[in-house]
Structure prediction request, 266 residues.
Amino acid sequence: DGDEITLAQLNSALAQTHQARTAAADSAKGKDFGPVLERLLELRLLVAEARDMELDSLPDVKQAIETFKDMQLRELVEYRATVGVKPDAMEVEQRYRDATREWKLRSVRFDSEADARAFHEALQAGKGYDALAKEAFASKKGTGTEAADWAGASKLARRVRDAVAGLVAGGTTAPVPVDGGFALVHVDAIRYAEAPAVRARLEAESLDRRRGEALLKYRADLTKKYAKVDLKLLQGLDFESPSRFDALRKDKRAVVTIRGEKPITV
Prediction:
Protein backbone atom coordinates (compact mmCIF):
# COMPACT_ATOMS: atom_id res chain seq x y z
CA ASP A 1 0.00 0.00 0.00
CA GLY A 2 2.92 2.35 -0.55
CA ASP A 3 3.98 2.18 3.10
CA GLU A 4 7.68 2.77 3.68
CA ILE A 5 10.26 1.75 6.24
CA THR A 6 12.91 4.45 6.42
CA LEU A 7 16.56 4.15 7.36
CA ALA A 8 15.86 6.20 10.48
CA GLN A 9 13.20 3.70 11.59
CA LEU A 10 15.59 0.83 10.97
CA ASN A 11 18.33 2.56 12.97
CA SER A 12 15.89 3.16 15.82
CA ALA A 13 14.94 -0.53 15.85
CA LEU A 14 18.61 -1.52 15.81
CA ALA A 15 19.31 0.78 18.74
CA GLN A 16 16.59 -0.99 20.72
CA THR A 17 18.47 -4.25 20.21
CA HIS A 18 21.54 -2.62 21.84
CA GLN A 19 23.54 -2.32 18.63
CA ALA A 20 25.63 0.82 18.22
CA ARG A 21 23.49 3.53 16.63
CA THR A 22 26.46 5.30 15.02
CA ALA A 23 27.83 2.11 13.47
CA ALA A 24 24.43 1.18 12.08
CA ALA A 25 23.93 4.64 10.62
CA ASP A 26 27.38 4.94 9.10
CA SER A 27 27.80 1.63 7.38
CA ALA A 28 25.75 -1.43 6.54
CA LYS A 29 28.80 -3.45 5.50
CA GLY A 30 29.13 -6.61 7.53
CA LYS A 31 25.86 -6.02 9.39
CA ASP A 32 22.98 -8.48 9.26
CA PHE A 33 19.89 -6.28 9.39
CA GLY A 34 17.65 -9.13 8.25
CA PRO A 35 16.02 -10.16 11.56
CA VAL A 36 15.31 -6.56 12.62
CA LEU A 37 13.95 -5.59 9.21
CA GLU A 38 11.83 -8.74 9.16
CA ARG A 39 10.29 -7.76 12.48
CA LEU A 40 9.47 -4.27 11.18
CA LEU A 41 7.84 -5.79 8.10
CA GLU A 42 5.77 -8.19 10.22
CA LEU A 43 4.55 -5.32 12.36
CA ARG A 44 3.45 -3.34 9.28
CA LEU A 45 1.66 -6.39 7.87
CA LEU A 46 -0.11 -7.03 11.16
CA VAL A 47 -1.31 -3.42 11.24
CA ALA A 48 -2.47 -3.64 7.62
CA GLU A 49 -4.34 -6.88 8.28
CA ALA A 50 -5.96 -5.45 11.41
CA ARG A 51 -7.07 -2.42 9.41
CA ASP A 52 -8.56 -4.65 6.70
CA MET A 53 -10.41 -6.63 9.38
CA GLU A 54 -11.70 -3.35 10.87
CA LEU A 55 -10.28 -4.49 14.18
CA ASP A 56 -10.30 -0.90 15.43
CA SER A 57 -14.11 -0.86 15.20
CA LEU A 58 -14.57 -3.64 17.77
CA PRO A 59 -15.93 -2.35 21.12
CA ASP A 60 -13.17 -3.99 23.19
CA VAL A 61 -10.47 -2.56 20.98
CA LYS A 62 -12.07 0.89 21.00
CA GLN A 63 -12.19 0.79 24.79
CA ALA A 64 -8.55 -0.28 24.96
CA ILE A 65 -7.55 2.57 22.65
CA GLU A 66 -9.50 5.12 24.70
CA THR A 67 -7.97 3.77 27.91
CA PHE A 68 -4.50 4.06 26.39
CA LYS A 69 -5.23 7.62 25.28
CA ASP A 70 -6.35 8.55 28.78
CA MET A 71 -3.20 7.04 30.26
CA GLN A 72 -1.00 8.93 27.81
CA LEU A 73 -2.81 12.20 28.51
CA ARG A 74 -2.46 11.70 32.26
CA GLU A 75 1.25 10.97 31.91
CA LEU A 76 1.70 14.05 29.73
CA VAL A 77 -0.14 16.27 32.22
CA GLU A 78 1.91 14.85 35.11
CA TYR A 79 5.10 15.38 33.12
CA ARG A 80 4.25 19.01 32.40
CA ALA A 81 3.29 19.59 36.05
CA THR A 82 6.64 18.22 37.29
CA VAL A 83 9.04 19.03 34.45
CA GLY A 84 10.96 21.59 36.49
CA VAL A 85 11.10 19.58 39.73
CA LYS A 86 14.55 18.65 41.01
CA PRO A 87 15.80 16.64 44.01
CA ASP A 88 16.18 18.51 47.29
CA ALA A 89 19.96 18.96 47.35
CA MET A 90 20.19 19.59 51.10
CA GLU A 91 17.97 16.61 51.91
CA VAL A 92 20.00 14.34 49.62
CA GLU A 93 23.30 15.52 51.12
CA GLN A 94 22.11 14.97 54.70
CA ARG A 95 20.75 11.51 53.94
CA TYR A 96 23.89 10.66 51.99
CA ARG A 97 26.11 11.66 54.90
CA ASP A 98 23.95 9.64 57.28
CA ALA A 99 24.11 6.61 54.99
CA THR A 100 27.86 6.73 54.33
CA ARG A 101 29.14 7.94 57.71
CA GLU A 102 31.81 5.77 59.30
CA TRP A 103 33.23 6.07 62.80
CA LYS A 104 36.68 5.13 64.08
CA LEU A 105 35.78 3.65 67.45
CA ARG A 106 37.25 2.38 70.69
CA SER A 107 35.26 1.15 73.65
CA VAL A 108 35.41 0.17 77.29
CA ARG A 109 32.95 -2.44 78.58
CA PHE A 110 31.99 -2.89 82.22
CA ASP A 111 30.06 -5.71 83.87
CA SER A 112 28.83 -3.28 86.51
CA GLU A 113 26.57 -0.35 85.62
CA ALA A 114 27.98 1.52 88.64
CA ASP A 115 31.54 1.25 87.26
CA ALA A 116 30.33 2.41 83.83
CA ARG A 117 28.60 5.42 85.35
CA ALA A 118 31.70 6.26 87.40
CA PHE A 119 33.78 6.20 84.21
CA HIS A 120 31.27 8.53 82.53
CA GLU A 121 31.18 10.94 85.48
CA ALA A 122 34.97 11.15 85.45
CA LEU A 123 34.84 11.99 81.74
CA GLN A 124 32.34 14.76 82.42
CA ALA A 125 34.57 16.06 85.14
CA GLY A 126 37.32 16.62 82.59
CA LYS A 127 39.50 13.53 82.78
CA GLY A 128 40.64 12.17 79.42
CA TYR A 129 39.27 9.02 77.85
CA ASP A 130 42.71 7.49 77.27
CA ALA A 131 43.75 7.81 80.91
CA LEU A 132 40.44 6.48 82.20
CA ALA A 133 40.53 3.53 79.79
CA LYS A 134 44.04 2.57 80.93
CA GLU A 135 42.89 2.66 84.56
CA ALA A 136 39.85 0.51 83.76
CA PHE A 137 41.96 -2.08 81.93
CA ALA A 138 44.62 -2.11 84.64
CA SER A 139 42.05 -2.62 87.42
CA LYS A 140 40.33 -5.40 85.44
CA LYS A 141 37.02 -3.58 85.91
CA GLY A 142 36.79 -2.82 82.24
CA THR A 143 37.59 -4.66 79.04
CA GLY A 144 37.59 -3.49 75.48
CA THR A 145 39.56 -2.36 72.48
CA GLU A 146 42.65 -0.21 72.81
CA ALA A 147 43.08 0.04 69.03
CA ALA A 148 40.41 1.91 67.09
CA ASP A 149 38.56 0.32 64.16
CA TRP A 150 36.39 1.86 61.43
CA ALA A 151 32.74 0.84 61.33
CA GLY A 152 29.70 1.98 59.35
CA ALA A 153 26.15 2.12 60.60
CA SER A 154 25.31 -1.33 59.20
CA LYS A 155 28.03 -2.94 61.34
CA LEU A 156 26.94 -1.39 64.64
CA ALA A 157 24.28 -2.57 67.05
CA ARG A 158 21.26 -0.25 66.99
CA ARG A 159 21.88 1.12 70.51
CA VAL A 160 25.54 1.83 69.75
CA ARG A 161 24.67 3.40 66.38
CA ASP A 162 22.09 5.67 67.98
CA ALA A 163 24.53 6.64 70.73
CA VAL A 164 27.41 7.65 68.43
CA ALA A 165 25.20 9.26 65.76
CA GLY A 166 25.20 12.67 67.44
CA LEU A 167 28.87 12.71 68.49
CA VAL A 168 31.77 14.57 66.93
CA ALA A 169 35.33 13.27 66.77
CA GLY A 170 36.73 13.06 70.31
CA GLY A 171 33.34 12.43 71.91
CA THR A 172 32.36 9.50 74.10
CA THR A 173 28.92 8.02 74.64
CA ALA A 174 27.16 7.62 77.95
CA PRO A 175 26.93 3.99 79.18
CA VAL A 176 25.17 1.91 76.52
CA PRO A 177 23.51 -1.39 77.52
CA VAL A 178 25.17 -4.26 75.63
CA ASP A 179 25.13 -8.01 76.02
CA GLY A 180 26.22 -8.79 79.57
CA GLY A 181 27.14 -5.26 80.59
CA PHE A 182 27.54 -1.60 79.71
CA ALA A 183 29.88 0.01 77.19
CA LEU A 184 31.22 3.51 76.63
CA VAL A 185 32.20 4.07 73.00
CA HIS A 186 34.77 6.70 72.04
CA VAL A 187 34.87 8.30 68.58
CA ASP A 188 38.41 8.92 67.36
CA ALA A 189 37.43 10.18 63.90
CA ILE A 190 34.59 10.38 61.38
CA ARG A 191 34.74 9.92 57.62
CA TYR A 192 32.29 9.50 54.74
CA ALA A 193 32.61 6.70 52.21
CA GLU A 194 32.32 7.31 48.47
CA ALA A 195 29.13 5.61 47.27
CA PRO A 196 27.83 6.96 43.92
CA ALA A 197 25.09 4.31 43.80
CA VAL A 198 23.77 5.41 47.19
CA ARG A 199 23.72 9.06 46.14
CA ALA A 200 21.91 8.18 42.91
CA ARG A 201 19.29 6.20 44.84
CA LEU A 202 18.73 9.03 47.33
CA GLU A 203 18.42 11.57 44.52
CA ALA A 204 15.81 9.38 42.81
CA GLU A 205 13.87 9.00 46.07
CA SER A 206 13.97 12.75 46.69
CA LEU A 207 12.85 13.44 43.13
CA ASP A 208 9.93 11.01 43.45
CA ARG A 209 8.86 12.62 46.72
CA ARG A 210 9.04 16.16 45.33
CA ARG A 211 7.18 15.13 42.18
CA GLY A 212 4.46 13.66 44.37
CA GLU A 213 4.22 16.92 46.31
CA ALA A 214 4.09 18.92 43.06
CA LEU A 215 1.29 16.70 41.72
CA LEU A 216 -0.71 17.05 44.93
CA LYS A 217 -0.40 20.83 44.74
CA TYR A 218 -1.27 20.78 41.02
CA ARG A 219 -4.36 18.72 41.72
CA ALA A 220 -5.39 21.00 44.60
CA ASP A 221 -4.99 24.04 42.35
CA LEU A 222 -7.07 22.42 39.59
CA THR A 223 -9.76 21.44 42.08
CA LYS A 224 -9.90 24.95 43.45
CA LYS A 225 -10.09 26.42 39.94
CA TYR A 226 -12.54 24.04 38.25
CA ALA A 227 -14.38 21.92 40.83
CA LYS A 228 -16.83 22.48 43.66
CA VAL A 229 -17.28 19.65 46.17
CA ASP A 230 -20.50 19.36 48.16
CA LEU A 231 -18.86 18.26 51.40
CA LYS A 232 -22.11 18.24 53.35
CA LEU A 233 -23.67 15.82 50.86
CA LEU A 234 -20.51 13.70 50.61
CA GLN A 235 -20.10 13.33 54.37
CA GLY A 236 -23.76 12.46 54.78
CA LEU A 237 -23.63 9.45 52.46
CA ASP A 238 -23.60 5.98 54.02
CA PHE A 239 -21.90 3.63 51.59
CA GLU A 240 -21.68 0.85 54.21
CA SER A 241 -25.43 0.26 54.37
CA PRO A 242 -26.40 -2.67 52.07
CA SER A 243 -30.08 -1.78 52.24
CA ARG A 244 -29.40 1.71 50.77
CA PHE A 245 -26.86 0.75 48.13
CA ASP A 246 -29.36 0.29 45.28
CA ALA A 247 -30.91 3.63 46.13
CA LEU A 248 -27.49 5.30 46.14
CA ARG A 249 -26.74 3.94 42.67
CA LYS A 250 -29.82 5.73 41.37
CA ASP A 251 -29.04 8.97 43.22
CA LYS A 252 -28.18 11.61 40.60
CA ARG A 253 -27.33 14.39 43.04
CA ALA A 254 -24.00 16.04 42.17
CA VAL A 255 -21.27 15.49 44.73
CA VAL A 256 -18.76 17.40 42.59
CA THR A 257 -19.55 19.91 39.88
CA ILE A 258 -16.75 20.49 37.38
CA ARG A 259 -16.61 23.47 35.07
CA GLY A 260 -16.89 22.30 31.47
CA GLU A 261 -17.44 18.64 32.39
CA LYS A 262 -20.19 16.36 33.61
CA PRO A 263 -20.67 16.34 37.40
CA ILE A 264 -19.64 13.44 39.63
CA THR A 265 -22.87 12.10 41.10
CA VAL A 266 -23.54 9.92 44.12
